[in-house]
Amino acid sequence: MKSLFKVSLLAATVMLAAGCQKDKAAETAKTDAPAATQVAKTIEFKSDDEKVAYAIGVSFANYLNSSLEKPKELGIDLDKKMVLKGIEHAFANKQELTDEEAHKALEGFDKRLTALAQAKAKAKAEANKKAGDEFRANFEKQEGVKKTKSGLLYKVLTPGKGKSPKATDTVEVQYKGTLTDGTKFDSSYDRGKPATFPLNRVIPGWTEGVQLMKEGAKYEFVIPPELAYGDQDTPTIPANSTLVFQVELLKVHDAKAPKKEEKKAKK
C-alpha cells in the first residue's frame, strides 16, 4: 500500500522558501476558508514576487489540509495548531526536533496509518463479501433464476430470437450496473448510446453470461466477486463486491467479418 502521509521533498522546500510573518500565520490559523478570503482582500501586494510568495503559502496550506484529512478518515485528528507551530519554529530555525527525530516520527506515523488503512479495507471487504453472499442466496430463490457451474446467476427478462455470441465476437449492448444496495456505478443508458466491445475483454461474468443470450434478449445477471473484480478496490466498486447487471444484447458482430471485408477490399 502506498504511503498515506508523507511530506515530500518538494513540499518541504516550499515550506522553507515561503515567507510569512508570525502574527499573520497565527491569525490565519484561527480562521476558516471564507475568513481567509476576506483577509486576502486587505493585502496590498507591492510586487509580483509578493504575490508568488503568498501563493506559495496558500498552496502549501492546501497541501497540508489535504494531508491532514487522510488521517482523520482513519480516526486520527492531528492538531493544526501544532502543525503551524512546527512551521513557525522551522522558519525561525529553532525546531525542537532534530531532522532524524522528525523523520522517525513521520515514518512511524506512516506505518501506523498504513496498518489502520489495511485493517479498515479488510473489514470493509469482508462486509462486502458477506452482504454479497446473502444477496445472491436470496436472488437464487426467485422464480426463473438459474445458476451456472461457475456461480453466475441470471434471469431471462426478455427472450431473444437472434444469434448468440461466442467469446471471440464483438457485441453491441445496452446495460446498467449496480451494487447490491442499488448504487449505480455504470450505465450505457446514461451515456445515450450502446456499448460495443470484444466479449473476451470484459470481466468473466460478462463473458460467460452474454454468451447465454440471443440478439434481442434482456437478462439480469448477478455476478459473484470471483467472476467480477475480486478483491480489487476502486472508487466505484468496493473490494469483494457482488455486481448486478441488466443487459440487452442488441447485435453480435462476428469476429471474422472484418477479415472477410479486408479480403474483398484487397481484390
Overall description:
- The chain has 267 residues and is an alpha+beta fold.
- The chain has two domains: 9-96, Orthogonal Bundle (Helix Hairpins), CATH 1.10.287; 138-258, Chitinase A, domain 3 (Roll).
- It is built from nine helices and seven strands, in the order ααααααββββαβαββα.
- Strands 1, 2, 3, 4, 5, 6 and 7 form a seven-stranded antiparallel beta sheet that branches.
- Strand 1 and strand 2 (153-158) form a beta hairpin.
- The protein starts with 8 loop residues before the first helix and ends with a helix.
CATH class of the largest domain: Alpha Beta
Distance between the termini: 56 Å
Task: Return Rg in Å.
Answer: 28 Å
Mean of residue pLDDT? 83
Helix content: 40-55%
Question: Count of DSSP helices?
Answer: 9
Question: In the CATH scheme, what's the topology name of the largest domain?
Answer: Chitinase A, domain 3
User: Major sheet: size, sense and barrel closure?
Assistant: 7 strands, antiparallel
Total beta-strand segments: 7
Compact description:
By secondary structure, the chain is an alpha+beta fold. It contains nine helices and seven strands.
